[in-house]
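Co-fold these.
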Amino acid sequence: MLSENSPAPSSVRTKRYELLTLGDELLLGLTANGHLTYIGAQLGRRGVLLQRNITITDEAEAIVSQFRESWAKSDVLITTGGLGPTCDDRTREAIAEVLGQKLVFEPEIVKAIEARFARLGRKMTDNNLKQAYRFERGEVLPNAHGTAPGLWVEQDGKVLIMLPGPPNELQPMFAEQVVPRLAERGLLLDREAYVQIRSAGVGESALEVKLQPIFDRYGEALSIAFCAHQGQVDVRVSSPSGALSFTQLDEIAAECAKLLGEDFMCYGSDSMAKVAGDLLRAEELTLAVAETATGGMLASAFTDICGASKFFAGGCVCYSNESKMQLLDVPECLLKQHGAVSAENAVAMAVGAAERLGADYGLAITGFAGPCGGTNENPVGTIYIALHSPQGVWSKKLHYPGPRATVNRRAVNAALDWLRRELVRASRGAVVMGGQTGGQNG
Amino acid sequence: MLSENSPAPSSVRTKRYELLTLGDELLLGLTANGHLTYIGAQLGRRGVLLQRNITITDEAEAIVSQFRESWAKSDVLITTGGLGPTCDDRTREAIAEVLGQKLVFEPEIVKAIEARFARLGRKMTDNNLKQAYRFERGEVLPNAHGTAPGLWVEQDGKVLIMLPGPPNELQPMFAEQVVPRLAERGLLLDREAYVQIRSAGVGESALEVKLQPIFDRYGEALSIAFCAHQGQVDVRVSSPSGALSFTQLDEIAAECAKLLGEDFMCYGSDSMAKVAGDLLRAEELTLAVAETATGGMLASAFTDICGASKFFAGGCVCYSNESKMQLLDVPECLLKQHGAVSAENAVAMAVGAAERLGADYGLAITGFAGPCGGTNENPVGTIYIALHSPQGVWSKKLHYPGPRATVNRRAVNAALDWLRRELVRASRGAVVMGGQTGGQNG
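Predicted complex below.
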């Protein structure tokens, strides 16, 4: 539901946001431009489409000329980088000149920097004082995770926000200080602009065809956006005009989820492993994994989740046949007869992992990810996955084109999605059986 | 050595390159801007610093206005995206208008697209014909991996290069067609502009102090750039004026490597795991790994290398105590007495992995990566690594601040670097011993 102060989505949409990212390291391809990904996504969630991102060198001349142009065009201009103590660039000075403002020394910033150094048991060096200047008609955004504070200026009906370059400093500052301030001023929505449904195993166009009858009922009041990535498709339902309330959007999303059945993964943006893990935890079940070519990617998908030890027993990366025999009790004769890239071995690995680690479910991947390896029967790109569950054990043969990293990623996603679907079916089965014995309906 | 046609580095440096990346998905943070990282790095290797990257929406109006400004400022302008069959934007048309060129239908492109569809056993749909237009005074860059060809225009003493959006189409087109064409025209160097030395375990400023005496001998003829990332620092030596030949740069790099001793990792940009793996392969030695919180990251570092099965036996991700006992023979009493996050357990895991998998080396990581877990004695961020080698077994306690992913990444890097150094020492030991018995000097 919209709070009373929430701006109308349509008024937010007309604000022009630009992002100016500074740094030669971005232009030399040494660092990925994570600020664009992060800030773009955060603004998108609050109903704003960033209009332009410009990355320029650290040269003062380039900064002045670009800042002047971007400032003239924007309602909100965000800059990242160039605020640190060692930079020999003149970002603050260059921008102050264009704004016609003076920089003033702020003793409070020095105190905060000194306190930070003291906590780390070090003494502040003088070059840090460079970070203690703010615009004379501007505010300071304290930095809880580093020395350079952010800077906030409102002038000519526009907002300028200067953020420090390190992502672990920028991201909390943006989420905790910048987003609420922008929302207060009606420059972005005070909650997410859309409800996101994440689906798996259905192509973008098939998904659109399937959901269209629901969307058709709402006409232009409803806006739909699809985004496909790695075997998953996200659907975002929103109402830019504000004609539909958030309660209605939630209801539409629930209807889509119901129609999608087990192709529905989750609301929001949880990973496949997180969704499967939550299903395991809910039933107090455990999982063990075994893998070859994917070499730890399958295990990582689970261990990236905090608290994974509640359901994840462990995994084996079995490159050699020796390791498959030693760690997973795969019989030597099986490997000799069928080879390591075979349905038989995948099954033996899944069962071996579950039994060795005393887990309820065992998930295994073996295959040729390339570029080396492969046989006539099982060329590069051939993957076998196997799933051991309390109900039995199965194997599937898959084939993916593309480079090694792509093959591995798709294999891991396929295995995770299979596990997820089995868990969904098992939990539904339990409900039905409960209904049959206890006379309840789900 | 410079070939006869090679442009002088200084003339390349004065050319202004801009990159225009198109797409709402970039501005919404749905996709990382990998084109900037890739193209920026490729240009940097050939002596060019990209001056500006601009990401804008797919709207025709935004494209026209940005293209006009960027074209006026650039010597070489590269665009990515907006060339596909389904885009409803007008990228080609918008740019043709600014250039004052007509678009002409090119039957050769249609033939190539039809052939591609035929190979995939599908029929070309009509919307693909949209991709068959080129500029009347321009060329076509064939696309070996997709339907939309690239476009090349030379006009007003400038070059425009339009590339398709999918990275697997763009990257080979850029490397195989664009770079050679630009080099032919003297717009970038025809070999790498620098020699890169990768070091580990020395901070950027300490490295600078250490190498300065070498650099000082060459004065302004030599240019040095440092780039620090994840415990490694890269040093690039180049000669923008062309005063030093590439043979001389190679010699300077070799001198730096010698001075750095075992802090020298490699020339170029191999990963730590690749360097360690090469050392193992050279001696026909094998490795097994065991890990807890890093959950597969350590194993992945090796399995990401093609041909890793030559030296990598396998790994265990042991989340539960049960799995440590079952997979690695860690004694239950040890886990009860010292806990899973202890030097004793790290040692038992390293030895267990090596023994179980019959490997020469065993590398183990256990710890609290956070945000949950941790004790008074071993707070979040505490990591134990252990290395089992033919010479014995050791353990180290480390502590890293920061979020889970950072702690894990640093723990993996520390373990890999330890292994690398041990292998370097072991191989040197062999040389010294050979020298002692055979009367040779290294």
